[in-house]
């Protein structure tokens, strides 16, 4: 059902623009995205929801890259088995990436699609950006919305876009 | 929400979209032929791929074969000629330890050479356009010129990491701002994360994902070299005690060859191991060390912001830290209607070479473009098949000018918007007209880049289908 909703979004809406959330390197090379709220999303989604999504993603990535006892153990075990163990078993990082993609899918279904937005998993963009696609609803029946808001409003994304929050 | 509301109209749109994505093309067999191609076949960097994308190396592999030959021949001679004598005379543990060392050396060498060093995939056209807009705009405002210089002015971004100011450079080939510690390898034409150096001896770049294998390779090779050298000398000495020096040499001539090879190798390899041990303990890359990025000579306040403070942690992280999966999905199938990365400098990519494509087939019953694919196949990890026969495919084109296709692509990008409606016809033009030698593409950057941009526009629907499912296929080598 949720997928159906997003399919309808795709069918009925046209892509207006894409916003790219860049990486935040202030803590080094670990994977983190900027939580700065892009102005293009101003009328589309609440700042707090957006920040929460990005912060959750950041925490997932931090978990994937966490250095500690368990990651050392995995590294040593892998070395001891000449890395053959990865033929049978996923790395911790891969497991977390799967969690992330499930989370993004869930967020898309519950939060973003009803507002006419779509998140792309950063892993598909080489972990460089979180790509957010902003759709304009060209169908008058507002099919892309379910529940709360008809976020995608009219073409200029004016006042109506903020409705139902 | 009424799915049936406006039903007939929606159904009409629905089938239209699926037709677009599946293909407007003439013959299904052509679609199959294109659909069967994997992403490594259109990878924009200058790499060679073997075993259907499982193995990835640099273009020049001659020196790698030399390394292999040296190690195999020297070790082979050792096991064949010296070990029998030593096993009897001293202890059979000698060939055993030698054997273990040898397998470790070969394993780490192959692992270093064949794996993805941490290549950063190139930016998609949308990303590149967004960045260029951000880079170009202030300049335009300042100069009062219209937008769209073909080459954005060189730009650096400054970031403060742990109190140190680090400059992030914009890579013109990959159209991204390089993450800290990443560098563009001119030999492989890729941006590599935590770029250490390009090693011709292993035939690959050494970067974030294979640095530990490289280190273990040179470390174990030092041990092996010292081991063989020591026991060859021992062998000759023991024989000389029995039969005299010259006779000893005559009895085992292989020992001379081994001794010579090992003698010359020991200095360089042990030296290299020591150097990399120092680098690991201070968490620097060869690149940074050579440039003196964090050296005290630059200034009193200059320190390495990536170091964890103590040697032990630095070593643990470098050698036993988490391994990130490969960001370039080599073995995924190309979806004909998904965006391809920014114009490659060697004109290699014809269409659709991003990671999202592998998700498509599993994700989309709507889009009929990948009928032959099964989810099973997509979910198989891209591990090197140990027993599988490998066919090598050389993808290196002759050196095309790197700036030319970029300029042409960017020129084409700004004035091909009207082509959007024609995309149906154009979509598969380039793959059809491109014969297998990729050199042809370098000569037609305009046609290629036009198709590329058109594909970018046409493919957004399917791209977002990927996000909907959120499936991620990762190759783990």
UniProtKB/TrEMBL annotation, chain A:
Keywords annotated in UniProt: Membrane
Pfam families membership: Erf4
Biased composition, class Gly residues, residue ranges: 154-165
Annotated GO CC locations: Golgi membrane
Principal location: Golgi
Record's compositionally biased regions (Low complexity): 140-153
Location of the protein in the cell: Golgi apparatus membrane
Region (Disordered): 138-165
Membrane topology: Lipid-anchor
Originating gene: GOLGA7B
Presence of keyword Metal-binding: no
Originating organism: Bos taurus (Bovine)
InterPro entries for this protein: Golgin_A_7/ERF4, Ras_palmitoyltransferase
Protein known as: Golgin A7 family member B
Residue ranges occupied by any Golgin subfamily A member 7/ERF4 domain in the UniProt entry: 19-131
Family: Belongs to the ERF4 family.
Keyword Nucleotidyltransferase on entry: no
TrEMBL record, chain B:
Compartments reported by the entry: Membrane
Protein species of origin: Bison bison bison (North American plains bison)
Catalytic activity: L-cysteinyl-[protein] + hexadecanoyl-CoA = S-hexadecanoyl-L-cysteinyl-[protein] + CoA
InterPro entries tied to this protein: Palmitoyltrfase_DHHC, PFA4/ZDH16/20/ERF2-like
GO-annotated biological processes: protein targeting to membrane
This protein's name: Palmitoyltransferase
Biological classification of the source: Eukaryota, Metazoa, Chordata, Craniata, Vertebrata
Entry comment, domain topic: The DHHC domain is required for palmitoyltransferase activity.
EC number: 2.3.1.225
Ranges for region Disordered: 331-359
Family per record: Belongs to the DHHC palmitoyltransferase family.
Assigned keywords, A-Z: Acyltransferase, Membrane, Transferase, Transmembrane, Transmembrane helix
GO molecular function: protein-cysteine S-palmitoyltransferase activity
One Gene Ontology term, aspect cellular component: membrane
